TrEMBL record:
<keyword id="KW-0012">Acyltransferase</keyword>
<feature type="transmembrane region" description="Helical">
    <location>
        <begin position="82"/>
        <end position="100"/>
    </location>
</feature>
<dbReference type="Pfam" id="PF01757">
    <property type="entry name" value="Acyl_transf_3"/>
</dbReference>
<feature type="transmembrane region" description="Helical">
    <location>
        <begin position="112"/>
        <end position="133"/>
    </location>
</feature>
<dbReference type="InterPro" id="IPR043968">
    <property type="entry name" value="SGNH"/>
</dbReference>
<feature type="domain" description="SGNH">
    <location>
        <begin position="221"/>
        <end position="437"/>
    </location>
</feature>
<keyword id="KW-1133">Transmembrane helix</keyword>
<feature type="transmembrane region" description="Helical">
    <location>
        <begin position="145"/>
        <end position="166"/>
    </location>
</feature>
<dbReference type="GO" id="GO:0016747">
    <property type="term" value="F:acyltransferase activity, transferring groups other than amino-acyl groups"/>
</dbReference>
<feature type="transmembrane region" description="Helical">
    <location>
        <begin position="43"/>
        <end position="61"/>
    </location>
</feature>
<comment type="similarity">
    <text>Belongs to the acyltransferase 3 family.</text>
</comment>
<feature type="domain" description="Acyltransferase 3">
    <location>
        <begin position="12"/>
        <end position="129"/>
    </location>
</feature>
<dbReference type="GO" id="GO:0000271">
    <property type="term" value="P:polysaccharide biosynthetic process"/>
</dbReference>
<dbReference type="GO" id="GO:0016020">
    <property type="term" value="C:membrane"/>
</dbReference>
<dbReference type="InterPro" id="IPR050879">
    <property type="entry name" value="Acyltransferase_3"/>
</dbReference>
<dbReference type="InterPro" id="IPR002656">
    <property type="entry name" value="Acyl_transf_3_dom"/>
</dbReference>
<feature type="transmembrane region" description="Helical">
    <location>
        <begin position="17"/>
        <end position="37"/>
    </location>
</feature>
Amino acid sequence: MGALLCLTITKIKLPKILAAIGGWLGLIMLVLCGVLFEVSTMFPGYIALVPTLAAVLILVSGENESGKGAEKFLGHPIMVKLGALSYGFYLWHWVILTFYKEIYNIKQVSLLHGILIIVLSAFLSWVVTLLVEKPIRNLKINHQSFKMFAILLIILLPVVLTNGLWKYKIETDSNKSEVLIGSDDYPGARVFDMKKIDKKPYLPTAANISDDKALPFTDGCQQNLDSAEVKICEYGATKNYDATVALVGGSHSTHWHSALLKIAEKHNIRLVNMTKAGCRLSTGKEGLPKCDEWNEHIIGKIAEVKPDLVFTTAEISYFNIKEVPQGYIEQFEALNKLGIQVFGVRDTPYFRNHVPRCIEEFGRDSKECAIEKVLVVPDVTDWSKLKNPPANVHYYDYTDHICPDTLCRPVIGNVVGYYDTGHLSVSFVNTLVPYIEEDLIPLLNKVKKK
């Protein structure tokens, strides 16, 4: 918008009265923006048009001087001097505010401390503008000279070094997590088989948890919302394999991928991923883009893959769903006609809050971040309510390794269980491998003998 205004502002002619009203209106909009809107949750988004349009009104008004507009106030020498510091202020204020909140471990800033932060930001802006910005801006050297190159290099060096060190730290933390998770200090799901463990700083760390996702989420093998094509990707043993397991369904199927991959690599199994974002294995109308069309093709594609076993979710652990959808049953029956057996796993609980953010804000043991087990995974499973369940579906429930008592907690055995509201982290899923392997391998051997 700024670029468009730059190209057209000299051609915009307004009557003085409109220019005056527009300028003051823009200034009022700009000042009230932070007062009227919950900027911490509404940005980025369309709401950004409010301050942007306010700036446009101010600039257009200033180009059409009326003598009574906001340009009179904003053009005062004091305001001009403050404006000269504004970029430095923009750079400094958020840094100081963020460090202040972290150091004092608070969410709200008092009026007095807020004023002090503003004053300190203004002072640092003045210092940086005086000692750094102005000298560089006023340098009288050839822009193509070595001196200019050296200056730019000196400016960029701290940024490059800081980013490099931060990246190294994140990678080191990630490698450390991979080594520790599964140990007696970080047993994850295995904690419920142990008598006692010491409380350790949870893993993955806050910096790494958002990336702790199964491979199909990141390597492009999970189909996106906008396409009905059935994507087929192979993992594990892709040649001379002893069996084939197809992972099918939506993202709540996908997040089991890392456990299946470990089992596949150990037992010479071909693991075929056939998942689509937001699209369960069901003939029910999901109402999501391309999902119904994807489900029309999926059975035929599974038949082409010829798996010994299909691994998928057998029900939905969502708040308002109390039974296995008929669409699930119809797809399971379609597989039954093809002679394909199904490893149907109970859906994992959904949390009310974004798990990593919640434990950062309230702490791992806060009730804010836990949820009552009965609300999301009641004692009586939806599957057990079926009078005539499909004969080819073998139902497995790992809920007790996630929520052992009355609460589902975000950190299990010092491992963060979820990377968002409803998807298991790779780190935690990997601690479930022994339990899944104990069920899957005997079933697979039994199916292969038929």
